[in-house]
Task: inverse folding
């Protein structure tokens, strides 16, 4: 994996009497990573001897992404308790995924993600207004996304079995499976949000938030087709995905005092056209995913309590919980050999895939003096039994059920020393992670059967000058 990134940030302070500053950010990123063959022995030909594959340690899948982004913000000065920011953002990303493999001594190449250019332009505004004990915040964003894809017209005509010189005479229907979609994704997404914070007591704040979010599908969700070695899977995009929409509400209560801090919040999200990876085939640990959409509902709780016996030590107890459901899924329709509807099956509501399990944790931070700090971080992650499934609607194939993951205990320790030499400040730290050396399986991972790293130690030095 190689990443090269360049950033430029500049500000123009008080260009106008009513403007506090104008800021500009520019960035350029060139990203590359490849997936190499595992080097397993395979039979390339039933008449050949059983030997090591020619693809051993070769870069079979090559992922590239080159992008440029720009963002300009105009911050106006406070006016009767109102502050705000207006801005524009433009970015252009060119990405592709190329596959090359040697089969029976011959190099085979294809594009899992055809070369595409994702262009996005957005306008946004945020504001804040404070009146007595109330603080109101609001914002909005409109974004246009266009993904033009260049195709070689003659190759598409040949794939249809026609002569490019007389293509107008060709009556054969265009394949719907193998031929790419020449249409361009070109849509607009609009998002907005508003929140209220009420300081009804010197130590308490009540908050209420509502947002409507719209998200464009990514090129990978739209067009990717083929293997993905990093997740040990085959993935298939869906070219007619619509933008993802959600309406979200959250209510919270915060308390802050000299000794005690605590907060608790609850949220509910209602999705239209929720985009997710649907497992449609499973053989051992090899999976086939297809991007799909449906309505979805998510709700959860988050909270923490902190106690400070003095200004050097703090103890925090925290936890979070989330549930997700896919609802009102489209019917499964089976057609007969002549294209008529044979069977219609209703799909039941189900748990959303890869939803994280409930967690609780304890953090202890100690600043013993100006030089030394220590930390203790314990997390208890519970078993995730609420898993998703996929109906096969076939007597020959069983339904696919998402893998459950066991709970675990995670203990991390750390110590740090900081000082300075002249004008240079430095910090030396040592962290011990997963001290209990537990087997940790992450439910949100696409490799939930692969344990995370065991007991490990990290040493480092940070310097500022």
Result:
């Amino acid at each position: 994996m190689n990443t090269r990134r360049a950033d430029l940030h500049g500000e123009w302070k008080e260009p106008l009497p009513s403007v506090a500053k104008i800021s500009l950010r520019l960035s350029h990123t060139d990203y590359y990573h490849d997936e190499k063959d595992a080097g397993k022995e395979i039979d390339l030909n039933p008449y050949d001897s059983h030997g090591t594959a020619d693809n051993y340690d070769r870069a079979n899948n090559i992922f590239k992404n080159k992008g440029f982004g720009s963002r300009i913000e105009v911050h106006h000065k406070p006016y009767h308790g109102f502050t705000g920011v207006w801005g524009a953002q433009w970015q252009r990303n060119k990405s592709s995924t190329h596959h090359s493999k040697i089969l029976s001594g011959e190099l085979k190449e294809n594009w899992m993600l055809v070369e595409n250019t994702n262009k996005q332009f957005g306008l946004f505004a945020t504001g804040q207004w404070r009146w007595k004990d109330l603080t109101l915040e609001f914002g909005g964003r409109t974004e246009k996304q266009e993904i033009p894809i260049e195709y070689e017209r003659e190759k598409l005509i040949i794939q249809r079995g026609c002569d490019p010189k007389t293509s107008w005479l060709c009556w054969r229907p265009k394949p719907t499976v193998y031929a790419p979609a020449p249409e361009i994704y070109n849509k607009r997404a609009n998002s907005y949000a508003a929140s209220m914070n009420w300081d009804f007591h010197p130590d308490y704040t009540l908050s209420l938030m509502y947002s409507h979010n719209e998200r464009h599908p990514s090129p990978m969700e739209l067009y990717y087709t083929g293997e993905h070695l990093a997740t040990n899977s085959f993935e298939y995009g869906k070219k007619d995905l619509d933008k993802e929409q959600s309406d979200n509400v959250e209510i919270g209560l915060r308390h802050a005092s000299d000794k005690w801090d605590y907060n608790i919040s609850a949220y509910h999200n209602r999705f239209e056209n929720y985009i997710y990876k649907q497992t449609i085939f499973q053989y051992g640990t090899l999976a086939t995913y297809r991007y799909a959409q449906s309505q979805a509902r998510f709700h959860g709780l988050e909270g923490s309590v902190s106690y400070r016996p003095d200004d050097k030590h703090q103890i925090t107890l925290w936890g979070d919980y989330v549930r997700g459901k896919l609802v009102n899924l489209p019917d499964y329709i089976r057609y007969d050999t002549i294209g008529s509807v044979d069977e219609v099956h209703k799909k039941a509501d189900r748990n959303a895939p890869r939803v994280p399990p409930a967690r609780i944790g304890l953090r202890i931070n100690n600043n013993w003096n100006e030089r030394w700090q220590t930390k203790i971080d314990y997390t208890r992650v519970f078993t995730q039994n609420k898993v998703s499934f996929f109906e096969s609607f076939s007597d020959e194939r069983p339904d696919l059920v998402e893998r459950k993951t066991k709970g675990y205990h995670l203990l991390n320790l750390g110590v740090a020393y900081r000082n300075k030499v002249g004008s240079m400040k430095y910090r030396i730290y040592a962290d011990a992670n997963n001290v209990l050396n537990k087997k940790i399986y992450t439910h949100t991972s696409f490799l939930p059967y692969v344990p995370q790293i065991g007991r490990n130690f990290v040493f480092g030095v940070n310097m500022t000058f």
